[in-house]
Structure formats: C-alpha cells, structure tokens
Write a structure and sequence with these properties.
mainly alpha, 61% helix
C-alpha cells in the first residue's frame, strides 16, 4: 500500500506493483481461480455479517481488509493460508475495533453454519432446510482448536497489513453528496439513496478491486450517478462529479466496474455450478492438481 492515511476521505491505495501480481499467482494459483476464491470469500463475509447482525460499514471494512491481505507479491498466498480462515480472522479483527465486537464462539459457529453446504452457489433457503444440524455443529474441542487458529490468523493479517487497519468508507459521503444536491426533497430521493448504497455494496465484490484503487469520493459519486440513471432521477446537467473530486475517467471506469458485476457473478455461478469454490489450502491444491491433469 502507499503511504498511510488517517483521513475520512482517502484510503491507502494499492500500488501498481501490488496490482500487477500477487503472492498466490507467484505460487502458481491462476488469476481466475484467485478471483473466484476472493469472490466466494467476500460473499461468505457478507453472509456472516448478516447472521451476526453487523452494520454494513463493519462488513465492508472486513471485506476490504480481506481483499488487502492477498494483494501484491508481499501479500498472503492461497497456497499457504486458508481463504476461509482469513475471512473469519478479518471479521474478528474488524469487529474488535468497532462498537459491535463479536466473541470467537459466535464467529466460529456462524462460519461453520455457512460453510456446511457442499455447493458455494446453492440456494441457501433450500440447502439449509435439508441440512442436518450435525453438519455444522461445533464441538467444544473443535471450538477451542478453531479459536486458537482464528487468533493466530488475526495476528498474520495484522502482520501482512503492517498493522494498517484504517478504512475510510463511502457510505456517509454518499448521503452528504445527495444532501448537497438536495435530492431528498424529491419523492424518489430515498430510492436513489438505497440504490446508490446497493451499488457501493456490489463494488465490494468487484474483481477490479476498486476499493483499493479509488478513494471514497469517487466511489460515492459513481454510485450516485448510476443509481440516478436507474431510478430516473434528474441530476444537474453540469459536470457535478468534479465538485466531489472525481474526474470523468475515474467515473467511467467505476461505472463499467458496477455494470459488469452481474455478468461476472453469473459467470462464476456457471463455472462452479453445484461444486464448492476451494477456500482451504488443501482444496486449492486439489483444484490445481485437477487442472494440471485436465491440461496434460
């Protein structure tokens, strides 16, 4: 990451060297598999946040922390660290720093429940109906082992990130910008805000890693722009985004990232079907061995 910031408007952004490659790719993990694992793990964190009743800003913080962990040649490698373990550690770490701390037991139980199905993209409601409690029950012995493992991975995350846990998020800025443009006086102002927040949440899963390459003002501006187009809200005809420190090039890039997410998610579901995206080191190694056999 570039130099550290403590502002509410900017984040430490990824450097070109960090975006060029990753420790996982240097260890032989293809970029498409890395993207699939990151997408599945970020969805796992989002689902865990919902079950733990965490505010969205804390969930977003955990997802971005998870994403930061893997980037660059000095980041974590999927051949060394389990994606699932790092995801749980990120949730534990971020909640400790918030007003909504979670006990290790809560997090371990939730992750055990969410990872019990054998298909990453299965229908959660239908799958959980047929799932026996034994499949996600965490015994006392297992709990203590996983608790120690989670605390160990929390320390690993802090070490890899250089203890840089600051995170400026675009949600508050988004509301401020909408208020500045007086949108809430209109009947569709609330719909516009909801849609903009939905796009900000979607971008957390983007393979373009936009939360690591763009500051919160640009993210908030792009979300408002696309949300306004969708709900039919008329924004100022002038280049209003420049007032919020966003140039046309960045706006265009972020709009493409937002609109391409649906196709990316559908492609991931098509690729993995009823199988499970590998989230452990053993599963990653097995997937790589399988690909090697198919290619030989």
């Amino acid at each position: 990451m570039s130099e550290a910031y403590t502002s509410s408007l900017v984040n430490p952004l990824a450097t070109p060297a960090q975006l060029e490659t990753s420790s996982s790719q240097l260890d032989g993990v293809p970029a498409d598999l890395e993207n699939s694992i990151r997408f599945a793990a970020c969805r796992l964190i989002q689902a865990a946040g919902a079950l733990l009743h965490l505010p969205q800003d804390i969930v977003a913080h955990a997802i971005i922390t998870y994403t930061r962990f893997w980037i660059g040649p000095d980041g974590g490698s999927l051949r060394i660290y389990s994606g699932q373990d790092i995801a749980a550690a990120c949730v534990y770490l971020v909640t400790k720093l918030s007003a909504h701390p979670q006990s290790p037991r809560n997090i371990i139980n939730v992750f055990g429940y969410l990872t019990a199905p054998s298909s990453t993209f299965s229908n959660p409601r239908e799958t959980m109906k047929s799932l026996k409690p034994e499949a996600y029950y965490v015994s006392e012995e297992t709990y203590h082992a996983q608790r120690g493992n989670m605390i160990k991975h929390e320390a690993i995350v802090l070490r890899i990130l250089g203890f840089q846990t600051h995170m400026a998020l675009p949600y508050t800025l988004c509301i401020n910008y909408l208020q500045t443009m007086d949108t809430f006086r209109h009947e569709s102002g609330s719909d516009l805000a909801r849609r903009a927040f939905a796009y900000l949440n979607t971008l957390l899963l983007s393979p373009q890693l936009v939360y690591l390459t763009h500051h919160p003002p640009a993210l908030a501006t792009a979300a408002i722009y696309l949300a306004a187009k969708e709900v039919g809200f008329k924004l100022p005809e002038e280049e209003w985004w420049e007032v919020f420190d966003t140039d046309r090039e960045d706006l265009g890039f972020l709009l493409v990232a937002m609109t391409s997410m649906s196709a990316f998610a559908n492609e991931e579901k098509k690729v993995w079907g009823n199988s499970e995206v590998p989230l452990s080191v053993e599963q990653v190694n097995a997937e790589l061995d399988k690909r090697a056999i198919l290619e030989s």
